[in-house]
Amino acid sequence: MLALCLFATATRAQSANYSSMNLHFVYIDHEPSTPVNKLCERLRMLRDDAVEIGDALIIYLADGQSPIVSLTGLKDKKGLGRDDNQTYTRIVAALQNANYHDVMARIDREKIIQLFDEYDFVDESGNFLFNSVIMDFYVGPEFWSLKDNERVIAHLFTAFKAASYTKGKFSFNVFKAKEQELDYPKGMPFGDNNIDGINEKLSIFDY
């Protein structure tokens, strides 16, 4: 099942021609305590850099059953307008005009895996189709209290086989606001199951 989601054929890889591009995926959990202005400024910088350098950027704002996805540097294969400037602007406006957006772990897992089925980063032999891949998760304390740290982050860490790739080719990062405090058992920020050694392999950074 996962192989179908993660691997593309060599023919598709050649037609996509992403080998010179870096792919940056950003997941956003918007909570009442999220420092929206700081986060929006970071998104703006990431998007400006992607446009200037010619890299690919996917911004994913969790929003219940209807997350908002913005594509930069990637053609929207489904014709949904996700590669339009207005979609990026819609994400910024959604963050600024609401106090929070709901996270639905199952929906997010499914839709993120579907996204990486559309824009595969490795071929059937395990060769990278992009120059490198970065997956960043901007999350807060409610994300932890609802155990979405396990149901979303740990699940995707395993689904994308993140532990098997070298850091320079595939980076999996978690960010929280500097002023936020996360509540979890000592040494187990991503659950006591510790699948694929995630608790030792992932760090939580402040922004």
How would you describe this protein?
The chain is of the alpha/beta class and 207 residues long. β2 (22-28), α3 (36-53) and β3 form a beta-alpha-beta unit. The strands form two sheets. A six-stranded mixed sheet has the order 4-3-2-6-7-8, with helices on one face. A two-stranded parallel ribbon has the order 1-5. The radius of gyration is 16 Å and the shape is globular. It has eight helices and eight strands, in the order αβαβαββααββααβαβ. α5 (105-118) packs parallel to α7 (148-159).
What structural class do you assign from the helix and strand content?
A: alpha/beta
Nearest-integer average pLDDT? 92
* DSSP strand tally: 8
Q: Report the sheet-strand fraction.
A: 15-25%
N- to C-terminal distance: 35 Å
* Spatial order of strands in the largest sheet: 4-3-2-6-7-8
Number of helices: 8
The largest pleated sheet is described as: 6 strands, mixed
Which descriptor suits the 3D outline?
globular
SSE blueprint:
Elements: H1 2-6, E1 7-8, H2 10-16, E2 22-28, H3 36-53, E3 56-61, E4 68-72, H4 85-97, H5 105-118, E5 122-123, E6 132-138, H6 141-145, H7 148-159, E7 170-176, H8 198-201, E8 204-206
Please tag this protein with its features.
six-stranded mixed sheet; two-stranded parallel sheet; alpha/beta; 8 helices; 207 residues
